[in-house]
Every structure is written in structure tokens, then in C-alpha cells.
Design goal:
By secondary structure, this protein is of the alpha+beta class. The protein has helices at 5-20, 42-49, 73-78; strands at 28-31, 34-37, 54-60, 63-64, 69-70, 83-90, 98-104, 107-114. It has one domain. The N and C termini lie far apart (60 Å).
Length: 118
């Protein structure tokens, strides 16, 4: 009994499609006091990793809709305030990339690595 050719394609394509839809791995930051990860509070990150080398705080625009449109300026100033974002920079020693930890609403939103701050 032969199986139609299209079923063979589905047999091999289905696992690939399932893997493509899997969520991306979140970055974490290994420190002497533990591992800082997405969702950690600022206090938890300081406890695990110590004080950062540099800190920056800025007001990020608020977006709406599925296409990530920023709220228009007249409404943004009057009705929708910007969202405070904190970025902390950790120097991880010779031969290691610097880590930038971004906080939104007091929790780690992302951790990125690079040769220099972004």
C-alpha cells in the first residue's frame, strides 16, 4: 500500500513547523550570587549580581495596536504617559561581552549581550 506523496511532505514538514512556532529562549545573566533572568525584580538582580557599572533611565513611548504604532503626541502627553525603562550595564570581565539588563515596570524585560553598550 503506497502513501500519497503529500503525506510524506506533511510528515517531515510538521516537526519543522512546530519548532518554528516555539518561543525563543530568553537570555539570563550568570552572576556570583545566582542567575538573573526575565521577570526578576531590580532588588533580585542587585542581590544576585551586585550594583551595575552604569545605569540609565528613559521614558519609552507607549504603543497601541497590533502594528506597534506609538500613541500620537497630543494624546501621549495628556492621557497616556510614557513608560519608564531602566537599563543597567554589567561589565563581566576580560574576554566577556558586556550585559545590558532592561527593566520595565520594575521587572527584567530583557538581557542582551554585546561588545559595547547599545
Amino acid at each position: 500500500m503506497s502513501v500519497p506523496m503529500k503525506w510524506w511532505h506533511l510528515l517531515f514538514a510538521a516537526p519543522a513547523l512546530l519548532l518554528a512556532g516555539a518561543p525563543a529562549q530568553a537570555e539570563s545573566l550568570r552572576c556570583s550570587g545566582g542567575i538573573a533572568a526575565e521577570g526578576d525584580s531590580r532588588v533580585a538582580v542587585v542581590y544576585k549580581c551586585g550594583q551595575p557599572l552604569l545605569q540609565d533611565t528613559f521614558c519609552a513611548p507607549v504603543f497601541y495596536g497590533s502594528f506597534l504604532h506609538p500613541v500620537p503626541q497630543p494624546f501621549a502627553n495628556a492621557y497616556v504617559p510614557c513608560q519608564q525603562v531602566d537599563e543597567w550595564l554589567y561589565e563581566r570581565g576580560p574576554g566577556n561581552l558586556v550585559a545590558t539588563v532592561r527593566f520595565r515596570l520594575g521587572k527584567v524585560q530583557s538581557i542582551t549581550y554585546g561588545r559595547s553598550p547599545q
